[in-house]
Specification:
- The protein has a single domain, classed as Transcriptional regulator MraZ domain (Chemotaxis protein chec).
- It has 5 helices and 8 strands.
- The strands form 2 sheets. Strands 1-7-8-4-3-5 form a 6-stranded antiparallel sheet, sandwiched between helices.
Length: 158
């Protein structure tokens, strides 16, 4: 993650309103504005029962990373289909509201309550009950000491 990347932190709970909109968390909007982001892209998470969100710049980095793979390889095609073909631009209005596509909500099992979670350079949107279970699993895995936190690159700032 570069220093120019938006930093998404914390957990924010909201509800889908009668018009199908949610309030995009103010700290997330600030992170985007401070970095002059070109926007946000969301897609069905290939790894979780959630919606993944990234900046347009991060999506471009992901596309560039796939350029290093063989052009017509099955692995590259899987990533392109699972991520890029399922992606939606997230339109955030002046009041910070946005509409989440129904297809993504259904795949993530989200009804009316929504949890946005920061994941550093990315974020996710969860059903709060599913997030509670995932959070418990994550905390237990970290406590067990079986995970290895990556080392910082030489010369990285703390």
């Amino acid at each position: 993650m570069s220093l120019n990347t938006a930093l998404f932190l914390s957990t924010h709970f909201t509800r889908i309103d009668g018009k199908g909109r949610v309030s995009f968390p103010a700290p997330f909007r600030s992170a985007l504005g401070l970095r002059n982001s070109q926007g946000v892209v969301i897609f069905s998470s290939p790894a979780d029962s959630a919606i993944d969100g990234v900046t347009v710049e991060r999506m471009q980095q992901m596309a560039l990373a796939l350029e290093g793979m063989t052009l017509f390889s099955q692995e590259r095609a899987f990533y392109e289909t699972a991520i890029f073909a399922a992606a939606h631009d997230l339109q955030i209005d002046r009041e910070g509201r946005c509409s989440l596509p129904k297809v993504l909500l259904e795949k993530a099992g989200i009804d009316s309550d929504v949890a946005f979670i920061g994941r550093g350079a990315t974020f996710q949107i969860w059903d709060p009950a599913k997030l509670e279970r995932r959070t418990a699993e994550s905390v237990e895995a970290v406590k067990a000491g079986t995970l290895a936190f990556p080392t910082l690159p030489q010369g990285a700032l703390l």
